[in-house]
Amino acid sequence: MGIGSTISSGRKYRPALGHRERGIIHLTLHRTKETKKVTYQLIQHTVADYAKWKIAFDEHMATRKTFGSRGAQVMRSADNPSAVTVLVEWDSTQNAQRFADSDTLREAMEAAGVTSAPSILYFDRSEKTNA
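RESULT FIELD:
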């Protein structure tokens, strides 16, 4: 097994410093973090009734998951509680765009009482920090 080898489970490991005992080198393997591409979709729009919109948003979760959503954060403007921002994490930019272009989203937004055209932006995470 070479440096950065894959064990039968398919996980990547890197060897730590080993020690010798009677001519045998013992290595400790540590799992390495694999870099996953993370795409974010930032959606901003206004709603007529936040409570009604939130119910519809929650009911639409299974559909988002089938398109590749990994979860979302919902935020409301401090100045205008009808202004909603949704940050959705996706498995790919293509899936996020496919979802944004879908009839199912358009229908769900209309039924939920979205009152403005959505602003939709896409981002690829380049770095994550702890603070």
